[in-house]
Amino acid sequence: MLPQRRHELILRTLRSDGPAGVQVLAERLGVSQATIRRDLVELDRQGRLTRVHGGAMAAEDLDDPFAEVAMVRVEEKDAVAERAAELIKDGEAVLLDIGTTAHRLARKLHGRSLTVITSNLMVYEELKDDQEVQIVLLGGVLRRSYHSLVGFLTEDNLRQVHADHLILGTSGVRPGGQVMDTTAVEVPLKRAMIAAADQVVLLADVGKFPGTGIAKVCGPEDIDVVITNAPADPATAGALREAGVEVIEV
């Protein structure tokens, strides 16, 4: 494949699918990772994309916080998302939280007979053309910076739905097991999601322990399962066990 053609395919992939890692691009184009790295260096020099740790994003994503976060710890998020997908059975309804890990999980749900309830617009974009998946899109005020819908309308919608599972994200888990968030506008929504689901599954990769956050979403007693790729520190593990939380390490 000529370099020019390869460059066009790389840019097309980044624009259509969002930020991507070197391994993903190499597999998609059928070339070595070394070749992709050289291509990314050249395209970055031309100002046609932006290199980030482990991959690249389209130039138009420079001011997109979601895109930037999406490229952080991609392999870890994928491992956690893969395990979460195994908990979801065909025919069930699953509520997907705002955030990048929920988007990674949505990629694992293609072709399955499920109902997906979400205010995450990246989840919607991922699954909208999949005829097997029924999507319930929660209304609300557009939060452009994070591709999501928020506010009192979203909360009202959540009171009208029920899910078998909630896949919950977090900014961090404190040593006492408290689930935290850095964005105040998301906290009421996460609490409403917890109330709307039979089982609450928290996805927390290695960067979330001991994580940060200005606002408490819930305590460990509100969580049923934690899926993580990080060995829990003794204090956090003890608090979760005491609250009856199942901790799954991947």
From TrEMBL:
Keywords from the named record: DNA-binding, Transcription, Transcription regulation
Keyword S-adenosyl-L-methionine included in the entry's annotation: no
Entry keyword Transcription: yes
Pfam family of the protein (one): HTH_DeoR
SUPFAM superfamilies linked to this entry: NagB/RpiA/CoA transferase-like, Winged helix' DNA-binding domain
Highest taxon above the source species: Bacteria
Domain HTH deoR-type: 3-58
Protein's UniProt name: DeoR/GlpR transcriptional regulator
Species of origin: Lentzea indica
